[in-house]
Structure prediction request, 277 residues.
Amino acid sequence: MLSVRDVLEKTIARFAQAGVDSPRLNAELLLARALGLTRGELLGAGDRKLAPDQKAKFDALAARREAREPIDYILGEREFYSRTFVVKPGVLVPRADTETIVDTLKRELPEAAGLAADIGCGSGALAVTLALEFPRLRVLATDISQVALHVTRQNAARLGAFVHCARMDGLSAVRGRFALIVSNPPYIDPADAEGLQPEVRDHEPPEALFGGKDGVEVAARLLVQASERLAPGGLCLFEHGFNQGQVMRRLAAQAGLRQARTVQDMAGLDRVLLARR
Prediction:
């Protein structure tokens, strides 16, 4: 029987050969999951021997990662704003970039209240976080994907957030007025698909990745909907690509939004459009 240390070293080499980012971290997380340990406990158990069933379970997980399946799908979870969210194939994996929307709202409207909408909710990371961080908001989460809405409901229930979920394209079936509309719409240019990591290109839902012509076609349409459904003075926050700040400000103005400006993420890159009705 192989020890934890032996299995880790062999797997790290395999992952590195396969082009997996952070091969040691990935190997440790998957082995910890297979053994039912925390990562800290695993690091203190280098001499522990793996039983055959444990080795088989780990090998199955490692094979998926070696094939470049996202580790978040394999583990079934991802952290967002210091909370653990369920993720699964069919929903976009939450990224730290999207936390910029929450941080920006805390600065711009710390006492946010009223009706809010998250267009294209995916796993529900943004909608649920808004409901928990701003308890005076009533949050509507929309998506065209039944899988996304199911996962959003699951995360809301697990984390104790009230979020109303509805299947629709953007806000096409809504007639109310919103104090806040947020979205992480698809914004990758389809022409850039081949340059994406296999984890993204081959596994995450394309409808949540690719934003049509120049990557902003979907966002342009959703900005028009947002403008029509925001209450006077209402706030709009849309995530976008690091090179799309200027075009998003222009599209916001064309949609009838005002005071459009760009907010940078933690890396100092253009990341979020902020505009008002």
